[in-house]
Automatic annotation (TrEMBL):
This is Peptidase P60. It comes from Domibacillus iocasae. PROSITE patterns: NLPC_P60 (PS51935). Residues 1-26 form the signal peptide. It comes from the Bacteria. One of its GO terms (biological process) is proteolysis. InterPro entries: NLP_P60_dom, Papain-like_cys_pep_sf, Peptidase_C40, SH3_16, SH3_YKFC_2nd. Gene3D superfamilies: endopeptidase domain like (from Nostoc punctiforme) (3.90.1720.10), SH3 Domains (2.30.30.40). Residues 213-337 form the NlpC/P60 domain. GO terms for molecular function: cysteine-type peptidase activity. Belongs to the peptidase C40 family. Keywords: Hydrolase, Protease, Signal, Thiol protease.
Length: 338
């Protein structure tokens, strides 16, 4: 073979490898990754909506039954209060990209899972609900010793190569870090290989993170970034919260695990007298003038005010505790921090 032909062959070889798509390019093995045969199941869409029953939903719900999901399109399609009220009793909760779940049952193309870090008396393994099988993935639990990128922005974009967007993810999404640079971190996704996040959108948490206990002011500051966000039944993401999804998500960001539902949040923590309230305390409201079943939770914002995600048709807001019907339905407060 002539020198010219050898050089041509080398050039063709280099070009062939440069054209391999992102997904086919394997990331360098992370130092924190462990060889393991143990598989766990993870959410494989930006926000998965878990339903009370498997099966057909409304046409507009196809945006969150597909893979990937489109949360912005879904929430914008629900343009009336009636559209959002329809979810009550039909949707159960949501889970974020990369969250671990336990499979409970399967039914055709649907699977019932329990969200590990959403505690509830409904199931000891976590909050249960149905979602399409394609929205979960079983993968080796190889990156549990890695540092974690926790999204602190309302939403953040995962990039293939620091230029090409792959997926938008929500506040509180956590993914293992396999490489850190000055302005970027490379993270491992559940089933789509290595991607990049801007450091300005995340905080870096140690493996088995011990997050310092927050002040009430810090909890309040975190909650305030969602002022104006429309209420969403079952919501636990920056695309919409229900009342207890809002409070549990704020606390989760600060490393404090509290029950998923308002009625259960009201049973934990430490009881606080109304005269001793501090910012960050949780306020509960019940039917029958505060004597019946707890149906709502808010966070104390200081100066007799509260921040909450009220109900379908409303938005996250700060209002006086003396606003009707909350004044009449006040049922006590609980403190989860010292």
């Amino acid at each position: 073979m002539t020198f010219k032909k050898v050089m041509m062959a080398i050039m063709l070889y280099i070009m062939a490898f440069s054209l391999v798509p992102y997904a086919a390019q394997a990331a360098e093995p992370a130092a924190c990754a462990a060889k393991t045969s143990v598989k766990k199941t993870y959410i494989n869409v930006s926000v998965a909506t878990l339903w009370k029953e498997p099966g057909t939903k409304r046409q507009m719900d196809q945006h969150v039954l597909s893979t990937p999901v489109n949360m912005k399109a879904w929430t914008s399609k629900m343009s009336t209060v009636k559209d959002r009220l329809w979810l009550t009793g039909k949707a159960e909760t949501q889970a974020l990209y990369g969250q671990e779940v336990t499979v409970l049952k399967t039914s055709g193309s649907w699977v019932q899972v329990a969200v590990k870090d959403q505690s509830t008396p409904k199931n000891s393994k976590g909050y249960p609900g149905w979602l399409p099988k394609a929205q979960v993935t079983a993968q080796p639990a190889a990156y549990e010793a890695c540092q974690t990128a926790g999204v602190k922005a309302k939403t953040a974009v995962l990039f293939h190569d620091k230029t090409t967007p792959f997926m938008e993810v929500s506040f509180n999404t956590e993914l293992p870090i396999i490489k850190s640079e000055t302005n970027w971190v490379q993270v491992m996704t559940p089933a789509n290989g290595a991607k990049w996040l801007k450091k300005s959108d995340i905080r870096i948490l140690a493996a088995a993170a011990v997050i310092p206990k927050p002040t009430g002011t810090a909890l309040l500051t975190t909650g305030k970034q969602f002022l104006g966000l429309p209420y969403l039944w079952s919501g636990v993401s920056a695309y919409g919260y229900d009342c207890s999804g809002f409070t549990s998500s704020v606390y989760r960001y600060h490393g404090i695990s509290i029950p998923r539902d308002a009625s259960e949040q009201a049973k934990k923590g430490k009881a606080v007298a109304k005269s001793s309230l501090k910012p960050g305390d949780l306020l509960f409201f019940a039917y029958n003038n505060g004597k019946g079943r707890v149906h709502h939770v808010a966070m104390y914002a200081g100066n007799g005010k509260m921040i909450h995600s009220p109900k379908a048709g409303k938005r996250v807001e700060i209002i006086s505790m003396n606003t009707s019907p909350y004044k009449q339905e006040y049922a006590g407060a609980r403190r989860y921090i010292d």
